[in-house]
């Protein structure tokens, strides 16, 4: 197990990425807390009372000592009993206040992260498709969960801890000076003995632990690489067992040496702290004893000295925590800035000021000099022009990476053009209401995605109020109804994460049924039959033919059968449409299409022929 890192110190990465504290940042953080200001006030009042009540046990101990010393009779016993009862009542009251404060604090923190998580999720839903392509999914999940949960810890822990520790220190210091200002000054002088050795030793341990952690990372990396299935096979094939063992042994030796140093430092730390903790009270007893013996303060008693020692010990931990508050503060700000980073990212794909909802029944789709680039240095589309007439099916062909998926992504505005326009029914898609536009477009993509639920739940995602008859008809159109009915649970069958319990063809046909239920006016297909067996492909192709009938359709074609069925074929090369026409025309007159046929379509034809021969 790697050594645990001491609290109170920032890592080098945290220092390098330390957020800049600004007035606007603090005001923004405060805006999440203000709606609960009265609840915070109640917590503050509870903490104040708790800090004052926290003095009483120490004070009562002092009174008990004085009672034992000064009243050794029956009256003293009665006083002793009264003080013990009072101590119990005060302690019980203090614990009840702590429970009340924790209850309110938990409620506040959970409400704040409820608001923040809802806000962030809602905002992320508005982000363009390009955002999710550029961001790591793990980063999004981390900010939605870990970072926002961290905010809860800030509200319920850090803020309360700072206030609570400060109040304890103030209340204890006030009582010390009230008891005897001379002894209070002695206590202040003794306090560094309790604090600075801790800081010094912890800093040394922190450095050793950081070094050990780096070595542990190297050790884990070698274990993961060389003891994995692929890694161990590679080691064996290249006969590197001895070399990898020596490398592992060397790193392991370094880890052991550093860990021993760190643990030794921890042992000395405990010895030093034990001596200090014992010595500090002795200083108080010594000085206090002299004051009592010499009569420096006639009212100072043995009980008062006991109280002073108890309060010094009581103050040491809160002061230590307050000295570390800058670390908690920096880490808290880092959480907020990471969340605000996402909230500040604006979506450039939004409704215009007065969006329209034109009739999209059998609408044409037209691209006019469309240009697009994911980055300034790498243009994808350099002036795409074409028009798909009403009710026709056009196919787009081209080499991998030519920009075919980018073109179809612009129709439902997953991306927006850099220049030019995409028009449906003669209206620029930027002027059409975004929800209305997407409700009338159906897409079947290569990467079929099903939620981890039942078949029925995945189908109803397209139309929540679909009737049993509509669902049955959609499944029959998609050639999946008989398969579903053959399952023991039928429509209640759970498909697994991303539909892993189903084959590729089954998932694809369910996704087609989902699109049929949606009943879109325009159909976009990123044909996904190239990796399927011939039976699945045949079933899916039949289903696609049914739903494309009398619909304006655009298909990215990977199969020659789809290309042959298209009303027109468009060849995309170097970001522009270089040729259009029927298969035979392009094969005869277009060199680019001929090359594509030789490298892509002809191989598929030969592959299918081989499969047929093998089956025979």
Helix and strand topology:
Layout: H1 12-16, H2 23-33, H3 37-53, H4 55-70, H5 74-125, H6 129-134, H7 137-179, H8 181-226, H9 229-237, H10 241-294, H11 302-323, H12 325-343, E1 365-375, E2 378-388, E3 393-397, H13 404-410, E4 419-424, E5 427-428, H14 434-439, E6 441-444, H15 455-460, H16 468-477, H17 481-486, H18 504-518, E7 522-526, H19 534-548, E8 552-556, H20 560-565, E9 568-573, E10 576-581, H21 583-589, H22 591-615
Parallel strand pairs: 3-8, 3-9, 6-7, 7-8
Antiparallel strand pairs: 1-2, 1-4, 4-5, 9-10
Helix pairs in contact: 3-5, 3-7, 4-5, 4-11, 5-7, 7-8, 7-11, 7-12, 8-10, 8-11, 10-11, 16-18, 18-19, 21-22
Structural class: alpha/beta
Provide the spatial order of strands within the biggest beta sheet.
6-7-8-3-9-10
CATH class of the largest domain: Mainly Alpha
User: What is the number of beta strands?
Assistant: 10
Give the number of domains. Answer: 3
* Percentage of residues in strands: 5-15%
Task: Describe the largest sheet.
Answer: 6 strands, mixed
Number of helical segments? Answer: 22
Q: Could you report the average pLDDT, rounded to the nearest whole number? A: 78
Distance between the termini: 60 Å
Q: What share of the residues lie within helices?
A: 55-70%
CATH topology of the largest domain: ABC transporter transmembrane region fold
Broad shape: elongated
